[in-house]
C-alpha cells in the first residue's frame, strides 16, 4: 500500500471521527432543545392559565383584560424558551434580543395609534368608568355600551344606530355616566306671568311630584323661585327618582304641570319686548314711524 493510500485512509478516519463527535454533540443539543421546547410550551400554557384564573378572582377585572394579560404571559414565556433553545446551538442570544427589541420598537412606531387604543382599552377595563348596558355621554359620543374591547368600544345610540368608538377617544375626555348611580335628580324650570300666583304655581308642581309613586320621599320634593326674568318669573321644581324612572317621570311631569297651569289660569308667557318711542315719532305719518322702528 503506497503512501497516498495511507494518507487517504487516515484523512477519512479523521473525518469520520470528527463527524461522529459532532453528531453526538448536536444530538444532545437537539434532544435538549426538544425537551426545552416541550417543557417551555407546557410551562407557558400553565402560567397563562394561572394568570387568567388569578385575575378572574380580582374584583373589577374584566374577562377581556384577564385573557389579554394571560396571552401576554404565555407569549412572553414562549419567546424566552425559543431564545434559550437557540442558545443551545451556540447562537448569540444577545444579538437576537437586540433584534427583537429593534423590531418591537419599529412595530410600536408603526402601530402608535393602535397601541394607544390598546393602552386606553386596558385603562377603561381596569378603572371601569362605564360597563356594558350603561348609558354614557362624552359630548361627542353618546349611547348604551354594548361591548368594551381592547381596541374599540361598541355603542348603541338612542335612535338605534350602531357606533364603534376607538378607546382613545373615550379615555381622553370627560365621561358622564347616566346609569352608574342608583338615583337622579330631575329639574323642571317653568316661567309664569308676573301677574300669576307664585304660591299656587309652586303648590301645583309640588303636588304632582309628591303624588307620583316613583318620586322618592327622601330627598324631599322642593320648589323655589329661580329668577326674575325679562318676561316671566321662573319657578324650579326638584325631585329625585330611581335612575331607571328618570325619563318616564320627567316626560309625564312636564305634561301634567302644563295641563294644571292651564286649568288654574296660570300662563307661561312668550318672550316680550317693550319699545318706547318719542312724541316726535308718534306725530309722524305711519310710514315714517315704521321706518324709524326698523332702523332702531
Which shape, going by the Cα principal axes?
rod-shaped
Q: Give a short account of the largest sheet.
A: 5 strands, antiparallel
- Mean pLDDT metric: 79
SSE succession: HHHHEEEEHEEHEEHHH
Residues in helices, as a percent range: 55-70%
Under the CATH scheme, the architecture of the largest domain is: 2-Layer Sandwich
InterPro entries: LSM_dom_sf (IPR010920), MS_channel_1st (IPR049142), MS_channel_C (IPR049278), MSC_TM_helix (IPR008910), MscS_archaea/bacteria_type (IPR045275), MscS_beta-dom_sf (IPR023408), MscS_channel_2nd (IPR006685), MscS_channel_C_sf (IPR011066)
GO cellular component, one term: plasma membrane
Family: Belongs to the MscS (TC 1.A.23) family.
Keywords: Cell inner membrane, Cell membrane, Ion channel, Ion transport, Membrane, Transmembrane, Transmembrane helix, Transport
Keywords:
alpha+beta; 9 helices; Helix Hairpins; transport; disordered C terminus; Alpha-Beta Plaits; 296 residues; SH3 type barrels; rod-shaped; 3-stranded antiparallel β-sheet; MscS_archaea/bacteria_type
Amino acid at each position: 500500500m503506497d503512501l497516498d493510500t495511507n494518507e487517504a485512509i487516515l484523512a477519512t478516519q479523521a473525518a469520520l471521527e470528527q463527524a461522529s463527535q459532532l453528531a453526538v454533540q448536536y444530538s444532545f443539543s437537539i434532544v435538549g432543545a426538544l425537551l426545552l421546547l416541550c417543557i417551555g410550551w407546557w410551562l407557558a400554557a400553565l402560567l397563562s392559565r394561572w394568570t387568567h384564573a388569578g385575575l378572574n378572582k380580582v374584583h373589577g377585572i374584566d374577562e377581556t383584560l384577564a385573557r389579554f394579560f394571560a396571552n401576554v404571559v404565555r407569549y412572553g414565556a414562549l419567546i424566552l424558551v425559543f431564545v434559550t433553545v437557540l442558545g443551545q446551538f451556540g447562537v448569540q442570544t444577545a444579538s437576537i434580543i437586540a433584534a427583537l427589541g429593534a423590531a418591537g420598537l419599529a412595530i410600536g412606531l408603526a402601530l402608535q395609534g393602535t397601541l394607544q387604543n390598546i393602552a386606553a382599552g386596558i385603562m377603561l377595563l381596569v378603572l371601569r368608568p362605564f360597563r356594558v348596558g350603561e348609558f354614557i355621554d362624552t359630548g361627542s359620543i353618546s349611547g348604551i355600551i354594548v361591548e368594551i374591547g381592547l381596541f374599540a368600544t361598541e355603542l348603541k345610540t338612542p335612535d338605534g344606530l350602531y357606533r364603534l368608538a376607538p378607546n382613545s377617544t373615550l379615555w381622553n375626555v370627560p365621561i358622564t355616566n347616566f346609569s352608574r348611580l342608583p338615583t337622579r335628580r330631575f329639574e323642571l324650570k317653568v316661567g309664569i306671568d308676573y301677574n300669576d300666583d307664585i304660591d299656587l304655581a309652586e303648590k301645583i308642581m309640588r303636588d304632582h311630584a309628591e303624588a307620583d309613586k316613583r318620586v322618592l320621599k327622601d330627598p324631599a320634593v322642593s320648589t323655589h323661585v329661580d329668577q326674575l326674568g325679562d318676561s316671566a318669573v321662573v319657578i324650579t321644581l326638584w325631585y329625585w327618582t330611581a335612575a331607571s324612572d328618570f325619563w318616564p317621570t320627567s316626560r309625564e311631569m312636564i305634561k301634567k304641570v302644563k295641563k294644571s297651569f292651564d286649568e288654574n289660569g296660570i300662563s307661561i308667557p312668550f318672550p316680550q319686548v317693550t319699545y318706547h318711542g318719542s312724541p316726535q315719532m308718534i306725530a309722524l305719518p305711519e310710514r315714517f314711524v315704521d321706518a324709524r322702528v326698523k332702523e332702531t
